[in-house]
Amino acid sequence: MTTLISGGTVVTADGTLDADVLVSGEKIAAVLTRDDTRPAVTFDHEIDAAGRYVLPGGIDVHTHMEMPFGGTSSSDTFETGTRAAAWGGTTTIIDFAVQAKGTSLLATLDKWHAKADGNCAVDYGFHMIVSDVNDTTLKEMDACIAAGVNSFKMFMAYPGVFYATDGEILLAMQQAARSGATVMMHAENGIAIDQLVAQALAAGRTDPVYHGVSRPPELEGEATSRAITLAKVARCPLYIVHLSATQALQAVAEARDAGQNVFAETCPQYLYLSLDDLARPDFEGAKFVCSPPLRPAEHQASLWRGLRANDLSVVSTDHCPFCFTEQKEMGRGDFSKIPNGMPGVEHRMDLLHAGVAAGQITLPRWVEVASTTPARMFGLYPRKGVIAAGSDADIVIYDPHARQTLSAATHHMNVDYSAYEGMEITGKVVTTLCRGRPVVDDGAYVGAPGHGTFQHRGPNQYML
Ligand code: URP
Ligand code: ZN
Ligand code: ZN
């Protein structure tokens, strides 16, 4: 089966090109510029992309589908979450397998395969969360790499749950360095934060906004600097996840200027939402509880600047949805019991396109931070992240002029609220192809669970 996507503007990280894209089976067969040199081609089917962008499928490298957390589980399954991803133009997710203390990494990986395999509408891979560092786990890291999992997330936050000491982090980083893997870090000083949380609760400050107040940006900056220092000593590539604060960004920028292999992502919630949302009345703020927390609005400008300057290389979602009723409710009267996380896998491409429309980033940079760099950072390039002959036909046809209003009433994520309720966006996905197969087409879901395949990933392609 061959398909010609004709008349569109191909957008890549390098620029834009008026070209048609020929898809054959699961792969891109050719990118054909519309000029005299274009050869004649035959095809079975044509998609008219006139007036539309033709993008490499989005790659969201930070999601949590059906993740056990805070006494409950995130509300999207791999099936519902990957379907929502496709609606929003994301054709690959990388989710986190979560090692529980006392269990093995390989058993954890098996468990996550059992959840995802046969259920995903788009392609998927895994990072491994290492919460128990010991001799066995350190040895198992190599087996994970052989199984296509080349990145390991650790936590400086959540003492007693995922938290690792500096010594444990150093050991895991040394092992990752030996094996050519990347360590991803949740960089918040959890020990100090726990004291501030206890003080807030003791003083009767129980509303959701105190989740933000008790996790100050300085403690993200401090942990980020400490992680960078540990990575330097261990000579390990470091990727800071969900960076939210100017202080943390400064630490990353300094390390990058000094030539260290340090990278960072931010997420749409930190670019668009703020501490004011956490302070919404009637417990509404609970919808916005995530860690690191939403920051005062002045941090947003530095994050956009960081994206332009490439101190922030990637935008992921940290999609970790919990329903407002029943799940977020668990923390009414005690903000520390609100499950941490926000929905967003469906809206990353649109919210970044809104940044293009607002002049915050360029069109090629949009594609770079949402698809091409994630592919390179996590060993998927050039199979994914680019529109080029030989690459997977993960293609999004995007209407840059369509208007949409984000709302829980119309989104496809399995969660009962939208963090962006009522926000008007210019731009919308028309068609999403994952390895040549339409998953969303002209306002209809035409995919199927099980089309998505596990992506065996190679090393970070930015390591110096
Ligand atoms: O609040 C968040 N970010 N929840 C998901 C888990 C994590 O730390 O990424
Ligand atoms: Zn985290
Ligand atoms: Zn996360």
Which keywords apply here?
464 residues; alpha/beta; Urease, subunit C, domain 1; TIM Barrel; 2 domains; 10-stranded mixed sheet; 8-stranded parallel sheet; 13 helices; 20 strands; globular; binds N-(aminocarbonyl)-beta-alanine; binds zinc ion
Beta percentage is 15-25%
Label the CATH architecture of the largest domain.
Alpha-Beta Barrel
The count of strands amounts to 20
Biggest pleated-sheet summary: 10 strands, mixed
Beginning-to-end CA distance, first to last residue: 41 Å
Based on Cα principal axes, name the global outline: globular
Global structural class = alpha/beta
**What ligands are attached or bound here?**
N-(aminocarbonyl)-beta-alanine, zinc ion
Which bin fits the share of residues in helices? Answer: 25-40%
The level-1 CATH class of the largest domain: Alpha Beta
Overall mean confidence score, pLDDT: 98
